[in-house]
Specification:
13 helices; globular; mainly alpha; 270 residues; MetI-like fold
Length: 270
Amino acid sequence: MIVAVALVCAVGPVAYGLLVSLRPYSSVVQNPLDLVPAFGELDFSGYTTAMLDASQGGYGLGRFVVNSLVVALGTVVLSILVSVLGAYAAARLRYKGRAVVNAIILGIYLFPGIVLSVPLFVILARAGLTGSLVGLFFVYVATTVPVALYMMRNYFLALPESIEEAALIDGASLPRMLRSIVLPVALPGVIATAIYVFMIAWNEYFYALLFLVRDRALWTAPLGISQLTDMNVPVTALLAGSLAVTVPVVVLFYIAQRYLVDGLTAGAEK
């Protein structure tokens, strides 16, 4: 019963927003509490208005979603590539000051964004990367690598060292062992970290506002959604745009779910 109530509370507002987004704006104004639209009044103009460019009479959310996808996917790729090697080194290598380094990694992640904003802005300004998606990409990599390192380090620590020792005894080099033994076993942790990094980059608003506010063509999805909260924007366009922005995230979780299950059920050693 408790699960059913929680499910209704979670899914109910989303379902209501979806139904409202499929109704004409005039009908919503007249009868805002009607839950099920009549078949003849189904209207997808809210989605087209939200996604089309301003030159076509829309709010340009489609362009912003593409910008967010480019930046978020690029952030995932580079952050995971860097963090896999760093996390494995932090989990397996023994060196002086190891605990201090691990604490610094976690501490950087815990810093609020406002603390890092001024140094990052100065660095990018000197590099000539402010007001560009490339600059925002480097900012997201810098802010997500610490959390990716921390997450994957904990996952590597949970893996049994016996499988690595067996690979080394069989003559495998360290790069081959990482590629053929460690990464396949650690796949669930890598994918979970990649999803988390994607969510951070996809939903990030503060840095996007700081670096891209002057050039509307480079806005990301969070900036585009913020403009839809204006009182002059029809509620159907606001709800349609908000739901459309969640589609890439839902697709990502659907695709990654299979790999997560396969990796978790494969097992590490017999």
